């Protein structure tokens, strides 16, 4: 019995020693990755040209209704327009709207650099509410017959979205900006069918839309900045400045035993994690200017196989904390890229719609096809952002959409949601 016990003890000791040696060998971290290409140079912008302080002041002064469901439903067309209530909201926010206009009048918008995962973020909710104020005021102007003011505020909403997209800030700033631009586009589509629209105002709209910067430029920079935040966050985790729970939005203090386990060399390899993330972000950045159909599939961290055995094996492999961390900090990038392609498609549809409306105002008839639009009205061939193909125009139904929307496939359903119906004969 003693011999059996001794034999088992020796066997277990050998296994422990072997596992320890394996963990020492396999747990050696990689060299620090070369990622200088992922750290973009930040533009120097003077305070005179930066709309940041005016935008922050507008956000702080915002007087938004605590119960705003009625307002949301009104904007979505689910509730009758209440001019009195709308005017009350606009009157309370006259000063924030004035400050917002001042911010948009500046050449640039740049936020203080967000460097780490636990750095405070701007008040994006307030920025979205400021955008909604522009929507409300535009629709109110339209209701009162002031078409020029309605177009001005719709274009301001587009400008706000663009400035947020191009602000060289975090990825969430880009996403909020993209949403704002698309809402501005939607509003302009509705205004195109207005009675009393003249060629002067329509041309002004075309020029403003034609001068917009490409969404992909803002996305490339936002992705590089996002990598910088994540890279510094990994360094902070490795040095103990940041706790693991902070990665999921919790307290940034140390998490006790969890952090001590996560700091073990075999369990967490900071440089290997950064190298894997750097390769993934490079693919993301290369994809930013591409059509959705041409995007390269990135190499994402492997996820555990279902079941206890699969999850246990996942945790036993080297760098489990790094792999889990990578899966947490990599947001739904496929959604981000799909929305980028959708935004480009909606802009192409809107520009084509302005050309069709211009042709109708000028000739008194609708162009039977986009190739037969009056040359003085045309904004050029418009291609969708999904496949780069010419838009499909159904003259009988007054409908514009990406060609892919008529078929099946990965982006067909999204393309169908971006189709626009012309509100003019």
Report on this model:
- With 425 residues, the chain is mostly helical.
- It has a domain of 148 residues.
- Helices cover 56% and strands 2% of the residues.
- The chain is built from 16 helices and three strands.
- A three-stranded antiparallel beta sheet has the order 1-2-3.
- The radius of gyration is 27 Å and the shape is globular.
- The N and C termini lie far apart (97 Å).
- About 5% of the residues have low confidence.
Distinctive features:
single chain, 425 residues, mainly alpha, 3-stranded antiparallel β-sheet, 2% strand, globular
Helix proportion: 55-70%
Shape: globular
Number of E-type strands: 3
Q: Describe the strand arrangement of the main beta sheet, using strand numbers.
A: 1-2-3
Uncertain runs? 4-23
The overall pLDDT average reads 86
Largest pleated sheet? 3 strands, antiparallel
The Cα radius of gyration reads: 27 Å
Helix and strand element order = HHHHHHHHHHHHHHHEEHE
What is the end-to-end distance?
Answer: 97 Å
Q: In what range is the share of β-strand residues?
A: under 5%
Give the structural class: mainly alpha
User: Count the helices. How many?
Assistant: 16
């Amino acid at each position: 019995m003693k011999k059996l016990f001794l034999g088992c003890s020796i066997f277990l000791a050998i296994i422990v020693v072997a596992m320890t040696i394996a963990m020492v060998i396999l747990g050696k971290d990689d060299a620090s990755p070369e990622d200088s290409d992922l750290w973009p140079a930040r533009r120097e912008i003077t305070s005179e040209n930066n709309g940041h302080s005016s935008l922050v002041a507008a956000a702080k002064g915002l007087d938004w209704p605590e119960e705003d469901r009625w307002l949301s439903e009104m904007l979505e067309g689910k509730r009758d327009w209440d001019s009195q209530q709308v005017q009350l909201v606009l009157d309370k926010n006259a000063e924030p709207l004035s400050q917002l206009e001042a911010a948009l009048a500046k050449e640039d918008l740049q936020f203080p650099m967000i460097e780490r995962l636990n750095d405070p973020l701007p008040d994006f909710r307030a920025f979205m509410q400021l955008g909604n104020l522009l929507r409300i005021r535009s629709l109110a102007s339209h209701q009162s017959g002031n078409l020029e003011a309605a177009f001005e505020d719709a274009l301001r909403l587009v400008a706000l979205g663009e400035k947020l997209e191009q602000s060289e800030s975090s990825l969430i700033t880009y996403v909020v900006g993209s949403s704002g631009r698309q809402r501005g586009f939607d509003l302009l589509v509705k205004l195109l069918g207005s009675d009393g629209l003249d060629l002067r105002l329509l041309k002004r709209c075309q020029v403003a839309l034609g001068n917009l910067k490409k969404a992909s430029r803002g996305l490339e920079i936002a992705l590089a900045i996002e990598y910088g935040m994540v890279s510094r966050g990994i360094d902070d985790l490795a040095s103990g400045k940041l706790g693991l729970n902070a990665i999921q939005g919790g307290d940034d203090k140390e998490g006790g035993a969890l952090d001590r386990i996560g700091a073990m060399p075999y369990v967490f390899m900071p440089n290997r994690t950064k190298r894997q993330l750097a390769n993934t972000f490079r693919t993301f950045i290369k994809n930013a200017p591409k059509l959705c159909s041409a995007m390269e599939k990135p190499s994402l961290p492997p996820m555990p196989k279902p079941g206890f055995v699969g999850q246990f094996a996942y945790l036993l492999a080297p760098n489990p904390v790094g792999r889990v961390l990578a899966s947490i900090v990599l947001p739904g990038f496929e959604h981000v890229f799909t929305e980028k392609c959708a935004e480009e498609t909606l802009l192409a549809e809107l520009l084509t719609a302005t050309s069709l409306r211009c042709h109708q105002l000028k000739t008194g008839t609708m162009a039977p096809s986009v190739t037969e639009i009056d040359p003085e009205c045309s904004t050029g061939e418009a291609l969708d952002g999904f496949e780069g193909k010419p838009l499909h125009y159904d003259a009988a139904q007054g409908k514009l959409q990406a060609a892919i929307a008529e078929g099946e496939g990965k982006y067909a359903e999204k393309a169908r949601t971006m189709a626009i119906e012309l509100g003019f004969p």
